[in-house]
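In response to reviewer comment 3 from the previous cycle, which asked for concrete evidence that the modeling workflow produces usable outputs, we include below a single protein chain processed end to end. The sequence was submitted unchanged, and the resulting structure tokens are shown without manual editing.
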Amino acid sequence: MEKSIEPTVTRHAKGKRPKFFEVDGIDEAMSMIMVLAGEFCVMRDRLDTVEKIATAKGIMIDQEVDDFEPDEATILAREERRQAFLDRLYYVTIKKAKEQEQNDSGERYSAVLKEIAEG
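The workflow returned the following structure tokens.
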């Protein structure tokens, strides 16, 4: 069976983000905490499923996990998954930094042009 590759398009919400906390950075930290909480819940459910399946098949999984040595493909797949997770975790912070960079660059560029024009 041939696996089709679908192009991925990163979509960003437009407009101003709601701000719930007065202190800068708290909204971003809460967003990160919620991503971590969601990931943790999914991971714990999957691990529970694996443990139950292994136990039902008579596999003593604790020692198997301790002894496991991943191959190169597993290491690469884990790194891709880890990077995707970090992209989600830092999404708001990265987006905010890019927005500030774009705004800053435009303002500074205009200021430099004005300064040059005025001599």
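The helical segments are 26-56, 61-67, 72-89, 91-118. We consider this sufficient to address the reviewer's concern, and the full set will be provided in the supplementary archive.
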